[in-house]
Design a protein that fits this description.
Elements lengths: L3 H18 L6 H13 L3 H14 L4 H13 L3 H14 L4 H13 L3 H14 L4 H13 L3 H14 L4 H13 L3 H14 L4 H27 L1
Helix pairs in contact: 1-2, 2-3, 2-4, 3-4, 4-5, 4-6, 5-6, 6-7, 7-8, 8-9, 9-10, 10-11, 11-12
């Protein structure tokens, strides 16, 4: 659930929209507003109910289908999200966020090839869309294709050298590929950008672990020689 203050705000907002519907039953903005309030409360089924009512009022509204897709994803129903995002994209082909969400829905449906195809299409249209690169790299990591993921993270850094998440991604990829020297290098770059994050604390521990294993390996080699 949302925290107490947020919950109170969203609940009050939802009630306000619902009361307004009594005299304005065909005002689609009220249904969308109520759905967003319920989404804030993480009551996704209720959000979906009001979005479906909005759809009955205006079947050609991009925001309704986009929000429906988002709520279906949040409600762990990606198979229902797919047609919503497809319709949203037909209504607004230039909205790349809807295309990214469609790819995510295919990821959740265990259809990585389809997701990758969508990411590639998006990047053809917008070659500097970092969010898309980030999702593409994350998918490659889920598939265990760390070489491919590393290439994508490097592309991100070419576009934006200050994108700290790409350094973290590269560090993890090189760690998985047993290239510890490079892993430590990128972990340190991430730490320099985000010195106070919880992730940094974990990375410091990982770097110490890597150095410790390296030191122990060198000692064993010295004994053998």
């Amino acid at each position: 659930m949302a925290n107490k203050l947020d919950e109170k705000h969203y609940r009050k907002t939802a009630v306000s929209f619902l009361n307004s519907m009594i005299s304005n039953k065909n005002d689609i903005t009220l249904y969308i507003g109520a759905s967003k309030a319920y989404k804030g409360l993480k009551e996704y089924s209720k959000a979906i109910k009001y979005l479906n009512r909005a759809k009955n009022i205006d079947s050609l509204n991009f925001e309704v289908y986009y929000e429906l897709g988002i709520n279906y994803l949040l409600n762990a129903e990606p198979y229902k999200a797919v047609p919503c995002f497809q319709t949203a994209i037909k209504l607004n082909p230039k909205n790349l966020n809807a295309q990214v969400q469609l790819a995510i829905a295919h990821e959740l449906l265990d259809e990585p090839e389809m997701a990758l195809m969508i990411y590639e299409k998006i990047l053809e249209e917008k070659p500097e869309f970092i969010l898309c690169y980030n999702h593409k790299a994350g998918l490659y990591m889920q598939l265990g294709e760390f070489e491919e993921a590393a290439r994508v993270f490097k592309q991100i850094l070419k576009i934006n050298p200050n994108y700290f998440r790409a350094n973290l991604g590269l560090g993890i990829c090189f760690d998985k590929l047993e290239r510890k020297h490079f892993a430590v290098r990128y972990y340190k770059k991430y730490i320099a950008k985000k010195p106070n994050s919880d992730t940094t604390k974990a990375l410091v521990g990982r770097i110490v672990e890597i150095y410790s294993k390296k030191s122990n390996a060198q000692k064993r080699l010295q004994v053998v020689s």
